[in-house]
Amino acid sequence: MQISLLRITNRLGVCKVNIMATRQSSDLSKFKENLKGAKNIVILSGAGISAESGIPTFRGAGGYWRKYQASSLATPEAFKDNPSLVWEFYHYRREVAARAQPNAGHIAIAKFETKHSSNKNITVITQNVDGLHVRAGTKSLIELHGNLYKTRCTKCKEVLINMDSPICEALANRGAPDVNIVGSDIPVKSLPHCKKANCGGLLRPHIVWFGESLEPAVLEKAGEAMESCDVCLVVGTSSVVYPAAMFAPQAAARGATVAEFNIETTPATPDFHYYFEGPCGTTLPQALDV
Ligand code: BV8
Ligand code: ZN
Q: Cβ(208) to ligand 1 under 6 A?
């Protein structure tokens, strides 16, 4: 692991030093040996695995929609303050993800699962909500943060799958990411509402927002997979959002072999045995031999 100093002199001539850990890409053949002998494998994915499908990640430039940071809209407070604006944001993302295709990274994981279905336990745990792992053919999937195509009634709590495009008339052709569009003029009564008799509650995306706890059953299933894995691949995540960011470092600490696949190092990189630099659409097919 090399540490390179990034000297930044700001406008006032004050020199700031950023410590950016850099690390050489690891030896793939050694990792493949580990993978061959592994019985229980977890693949933990983040927004980076969908980047090559054209879906913006959270922290890159794509982390914005209109003049808002995506993470500022992914909160219960934002939905309470302006459900129409939040629904325009999620409607936009539903439409973008529906037009996107799984890429070589998603497909390599699904092929690896099929190839080893008889001799290995493989679990995919994703932080993503875009549904691309399922469309690539992944069978054993845990969606930590929900799914763009599920709604939850704010009144009766019913969770339903909803693939409608648009999800309601009022959202047709809305959600454009144009920075000049401020707020939303869609009346709340025109937003998606529960169709259950005597309910009619406002629907929300069935997605875990910042400040909300993950579903206990989902957390438990992910915990079991992480506790029993011999090898964990951490793919396309900045490892800054908790509790997901803890999973792989905890597995490494108890002796599992952890390999990170990313285009840059992350705060968790030093915890891991292997680091494979590059777009995962390229590195995963090589590492998984599919
Ligand atoms: C929780 C759904 C208990 C939304 C998401 C204050 C109050 C309350 C909580 C907190 C608080 N402060 C901190 C917290 C905890 C908070 C948190 O961790 N915040 C962070 C920002 C510090 N966590 C929570 O709130 C969680 N709940 O803690 O409950 C609790 C409850 C109440 C009070 C206290 C505690 C819930 C977190 C879930 C939020 N929902 N998603 C939606 O999608 O709309 S998280 C969202 O960001 C994503 O789902 C993802 O999980 C997460 C991180 O994003 P990444 O996937 O890592 O993507 P990112 O863009 O960051 O990075 C992409 C990476 O890919 C980069 O490294 C890049 O280099 C790489 N890459 C890019 N291209 C490629 C590539 N790699 C390979 N190949 C490529 N081609
Ligand atoms: Zn309802």
A: yes
173 φψ region: left (φ > 0), alpha (ψ -120 to 50), beta (else): left
The residue type at 33: E
283 lines ligand 1 (CB under 6 A): no
Contacts of 63 (CB under 8 A, 6+ apart): 56, 57, 69, 70, 71
Q: What pLDDT score does 64 carry? A: 87
Please write the tens of the pLDDT for every residue from 9-27: 444 454 544 455 678 888 8
Per the CB < 8 A criterion, the answer to whether 250 and 229 are in contact is no
247 alpha carbon, closest ligand: 1
Give the model confidence (pLDDT) of 208-226 as tens digits: 999 999 999 999 999 999 9
Q: Where are the alpha helices (DSSP H) in 100-197?
A: 104-115, 132-136
**Which of 241, 263, 264, 283 best tests ligand 1's pocket when mutated (most atoms within 8 Å of CB)?**
241
Which string of b and e fits 77-87 if b means at least 16 CB within 10 Å? ebbeebbbbbb
**Torsion sign across C-alpha atoms 149, 243, 64, 108:** negative
- Output the CA torsion sign for 245, 250, 253, 254: negative
CB 235 within 8 A of CB 45: yes
